[in-house]
Amino acid sequence: MRKKSIDMDTRYQSTGDPCDQSNREDVSVSSRRQWSMNLSSSLGLIAFASLLKEDGNLLADSRDGAEREAHFPSKAKRCIFLMMEGGPSHIDTFDPKPKLKDLHLSEFNRSGEQKSAMESGKRYYVQSPFAFGRYGESGAAMATNWEHLRGVADDLCFYRGCQVDSVNHPTAMYQMNCGNQFGGDPGLGAWVTYGLGSVNQNLPGFIVLPEISFPQGGAANWSNGFLPTAFQGTPLRPKGSPILDLSPPSGVTMQRQRDNLDLLMKLNQRHAQAKPHQQDLRARLMSYELAFRMQSEIPDALDLSGESEKTLQEYGVGQESTNSFGRKCLLARKLVEKGVRFVQLYHGTWDSHDYIERAHGNLVRGVDQPIAALIRDLKNRGLLDSTLVVWCGEFGRSPDNGVRGGTAYGRDHNPKAMTIWMAGGGCKAGHTIGATDETGMEAVEQVHHVRDFHVTLLRLLGLDDNRLTYYHAGRHKQLSQFGGEVIEPLIA
């Protein structure tokens, strides 16, 4: 006689033979999961909600991206982050090293001993192929091929003391963008929008303007990580439709689409009520609604036809070398005007292991005019004080050549020295903070790990890294990983 056994789902009765499938009626694999999840979530969710309440970050308050108050009063309300992927050379842009002229083509030796290395096949010091000048009342040091940026030198705050941990592009990109070398954590923009919310509920709070090919490390550079999905970055395609399927199919009116979404909302809400612990369901509903609202908002935000011919010329739109990045910079201004909290622009690749004069020369030519135009435009519109502009790469470059022999002078990766500059948003404009040694190999003044720079960016935006936390995997996590300190000299 076969004894019937009671399963977690009362609809299911077994013959007792685990291999016997004949008497299984209306069985779903998910029913077992559902029973166990319901059992574990009853007390677990109460405890989890209590932890979140203690932290002051209730999911119900943060998931929808609504605008929220900052922790501190601040000038900066939004951020435009200019990411120069590949590691621009500080030595050949904003940190002149005349000592390298004396050391040029002598063997790279930390002990200080110098000898000819041109024919030895060893590493050797290389002077910068670019001349440098001092610009503005602040006397900011820049390579002379920054012909446009020099005009806004007094609006810039240069920082030469930042250090990172990795010499590999993907891990260094993750650390600069997410605070973690190994990916999987939220990006800077995700943390900022989590902390401050979005001003315009018809647009994503965090928008990314990438190159045609994504940077090393891919979309994880702007991921929401363990934060609710509402805070992930939304990349806009540089060619074709900025967002695929943004327009409804032919023959489908907006009203019909609205009706379809309303029906879908009712069905999904019913499903969500039966599974309150599955938080992604709410995020999915929100994404549908945001996508619908974006259909009317995005086209206007991305339309440059309303800009004057003078503005387009100032940004370099229509010019071969500056058209691509010029459009990104102009779009960034339009997006922050419309309430987007964090806009990240990518430009690459600055990984100049050889022919640095040609490579960096072309790269500077592509971004110089658009960036200067962006800063002037923000200033003229009264937006620069409330918009923090950041320029950086994932690390700097070494003072020695990465190529053996010949004259194809280039530079290797250098995590111990780099130049970052900021403009607007309460930073100390017209100042250069920190310094590197005489060859540019290592930061020696105001030396801080990148976690401290991240903490400082958050502070400029009115956020406290120690309070901007999210409970995940058993602990309260934050951008700096385990805390950091504000670099006070960078703040006006």
Secondary structure layout:
Blueprint: E1 5-6, E2 13-14, H1 29-55, H2 59-62, E3 78-84, H3 99-103, E4 132-135, E5 140-143, E6 156-159, E7 162-163, H4 169-178, H5 188-196, E8 206-209, E9 234-235, H6 254-274, H7 280-301, H8 309-315, H9 323-337, E10 342-347, H10 356-380, E11 387-392, E12 396-397, E13 413-414, E14 420-423, E15 431-433, E16 435-436, E17 443-445, E18 448-449, H11 450-460, E19 470-472, E20 475-477
Parallel strand pairs: 3-10, 3-11, 6-15, 7-18, 8-9, 8-10
Antiparallel strand pairs: 1-2, 4-5, 6-14, 11-14, 12-13, 16-17, 19-20
Helix pairs in contact: 6-7, 9-10
What's the oligomerization state?
Answer: single chain
Estimate the global geometry from the Cα principal axes: globular
| Average pLDDT rating | 84
CA-based gyration radius: 27 Å
User: Low-confidence segments, ≥5 residues, pLDDT <50?
Assistant: 1-30, 35-63, 111-120
How far is it from the N-terminal to the C-terminal residue, by CA? 84 Å
Structural class designation: alpha/beta
| Biggest β-sheet description | 8 strands, mixed
Helix proportion range: 25-40%
CATH class of the largest domain: Alpha Beta
Describe the fold and architecture.
- The protein is an alpha/beta fold and 492 residues long.
- 32% of the residues lie in helices and 14% in strands.
- The chain is built from 11 helices and 20 strands.
- The strands form 7 sheets. The chain has an 8-stranded mixed beta sheet. Strands 1-2 form a two-stranded antiparallel ribbon. The protein has a two-stranded antiparallel ribbon with strand order 4-5.
- A hairpin with a 2-residue loop joins strand 19 and strand 20 (475-477).
- Helix 6 (254-274) packs antiparallel against helix 7 (280-301).
- The longest helix is centred in the N-terminal third of the chain and has 27 residues, at 29-55.
- The N and C termini lie far apart (84 Å).
- Mean pLDDT is 84; it is low at 1-30, 35-63 and 111-120.
